[in-house]
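In response to a reviewer's request, we include the raw inputs and outputs for one of the modeled complexes. The two entities were modeled together in a single run.
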Amino acid sequence: MSTVTGAAPLGHPERSERSAAGDAVMLRYAQDDMRVPHGLVRRWSGIAVALVVVGVAVPVANLLVPETGALHLSDYAVQLIAKIMCYAIAALAMDLIWGYTGILSLGHGAFFALGGYAMGMYLMRQIGSDGQYHLPMPDFMVFLNWKEFPWHWALSDSFVAQMALVILAPGLLAFVFGFFAFRSRIKGVYFSIITQAMTFAMMLLFFRNETGFGGNNGFTDFKRILGVTIATPQTRMVLFVITGCTLIGFYLVARAIVGSKFGRVLQAIRDAESRVMFTGYDPLRYKLAIWTFSAVMCGVAGALYVPQVGIINPSEMTPAASIEIAIWAAVGGRATLIGPIVGAFFVNGAKSVFTQYLPEYWLYVLGAMFIAVTLFLPQGIVGLFRRVRR
Amino acid sequence: MVLGCVLLSGTAWSLTPQQARALAVGETEERIAALNAQLAGADEKTVALIQALSDDAVKFTDSAVIVMKDDKGHDPVTGAEVAVPATAEDVVNNNQMRSELDSALATIKLFSKDDKVRAEAVKTLQGEPDEAKLPLVEKAYAAETVPAIKEAIGHVRAAMLLGSADTARRLEASRSLGESGTPATKTLLLERQKVETDAAVKGAIAVALGRIEGRLKWGERLGVLFTGVSLGSILLLVALGLAITYGLMGVINMAHGELMMIGAYTTYVVQNLFRTWLPGWFDAYVIVAIPAAFLVSALVGAVLERGVIRFLYGRPLETLLATWGISLVLQQAVRTIFGAQNVPVENPKWLSGGIQAMSNLVLPYNRIAIIVFAVLVLAGVALLIARTRFGLFIRGVTQNRRMAACVGVDTAKIDMLAFSFGAGIAGLGGVALSQVGNVGPDLGQSYIVDSFLVVVVGGVGQLAGTVVAALGLGVLNKLLEGLSGAVLAKIMVLVAIVIFIQRKPSGLFAMKGRSAEA
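The model returned the following structure tokens for the whole complex.
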């Protein structure tokens, strides 16, 4: 027994060298973003195109082109794209923390859901007395025989307060959790596992009826947002445009972060944390800042997701849901900014096709994606394109 | 219907038509009085009539009582066949009458020659103490020879005495009831406490209640400890395989739960094979399932190592994602082959039932077997790693791969064998789980978070740490469950673990020195 306890944990010297080489490759790709002589035009033309698609092309194709027209975009397609754009924001958040800082979170689903629940609380209050029981309380509270709102619902009828909560709830949880974790220098797989435990605990908590978030049914049957009926094509289109602009906005912010000195330190932490410390930087602050920002991004994504999909429940907090966010980023390409967005669209596009036509094969495909990407495509789809172009 | 065990010699007199009529017809209270009056001297015919009344097989007319048997009428006194007039009405028993009939029958059954019938009868009587049956119970108590049944009859007697109008009797009864420790006597005493007026008896009841509660508490505490150890031993079986693949080899295997699932499904298949081909040996199927599950899971593990994991050594985060993908594929494969529903795995006879350790504490055999099994597997793994050549190679490759290769160890082969060994242990865990829980495609998912936490809390690469962490988490979980319910307990345990890891990032048994930073 004593000999067993003396064994070293992860001793593969030549293998860790190999992985260091792999990281160097990743770093080179990361630098590519900066080194390629982007002119002002090249830098911003893609953004302009994206803005036009989100702000003009899709609304026109959905609302103005007649349904028989070849260019008509159905409501279903708009809703699907909106949903995937929310996922893309979450994937971008995952990329900042995993791709650029080297910290794999398996708990981002919890932040996504927290933002969603904060929005959902407001939407539940907007239902007013139009629920099944025609009482001012949400149906699930009536069902539990609650006479007044619990304390955490105190501000739920104020849109502004709930939007602040969309940012504060995931932000605060991430800040506290991250502070203690990073301070104890928990990293690598350990960090991944305790984030998984975190989202698992949150899921159990939200499954309880007593927590006051509707138990396993969560929130659904929304009627209005800011007094406007939520189900009309016009409202949906406004939400779509807001989501698209948010995605583009976060992309720009992420680009600014990655290109800044702050972002360079993050990548240095990813590649050699000890050396960063010895050069006089305190990794705790950098990691904590990007971790909290990433969580807030996820929360905003969740808040945009709920009114468009029309439901939020604790299943968004299952460990599986969080790992899927990681796979979107991995499939698209880590340590690139466009990668996670591409990945979110690719994986979720494939998911909706498969679940519609070949539902029993979807898990095989998803599982194969996990394996194939880690084995053959460490830089994801974007890396594949770059390799082909070269 | 052969209750020919009415041994009330001497006092027995035969059933008269008047008595039969009193039992069957009239107001409920009067019938109950008649029933209790006749019980002490009941003969076979009375018993038969009571049984028939309880079975709703009695009719009555203005002048006669008729027992129905196979659609024919019989006279209860003579037993002769009689015609059933069209005017005959069914005897209707209300709930009170029915329970009186049942307890009367139970009292009579106290004199059966069959131990099981007597034990069963005592159980029925425990619920409804009624002083009217006291003489019979006293008699049965005196005649009883089996100690366990005698004790039980004694309690019934005391319970009946407790309802007595005589203060001295009540006093004696409350004292003797204090000796027992069943929840039923506690309820009984509590009920009496409410209506009791005599101060002395009240005091005696309070003392008895205190003693019973103390004993019940012990039962509860031991019960919590046992379920905790039982959960801990399951976690240990799950985490042992992980301790090898993760702890010793540095591979995060998210498909570990699915390897357990494969073990459980192997058990299911072996069970079905036994049922079809060797029904006489069915109870032995678990014994065969153990090596079968080990081999199947180990084989799948070897394929995974060769096909996927060997390319990912030294990249733990990538391994994590790839093995998650593997787990999805394995789950779906099982759904395709066996269907999405849970499959039934039956306990063999020697694993069902349990030991009645205390009145409120039953130790099920399957749980005990799992604890024993976990200890055996643990001993096997520890011996194999510490004492065999294979174990030496695993330790050597873990500590210094290049040096091991230099002295001629085939490191790639050792990697594969160690991984499939860990997978085989997972398969063994699957056999154990199939005996206590549902076997379905989601089986692995429900344990994967827990088992990783066990390994992390115990400290990576530490078998001893894994054992302490598994048992500790199991008992802690069940303790908190008793205080605050299952879900909150789980949440509290998770929070406790997260806080614990903050304090001790490398687990309970941290490695010291240079190897700790490797």
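As requested, we also summarize the result in words. The longest strand of chain B covers residues 65-69. Residues 1-12, 512-518 of chain B have pLDDT under 50 and may be disordered.
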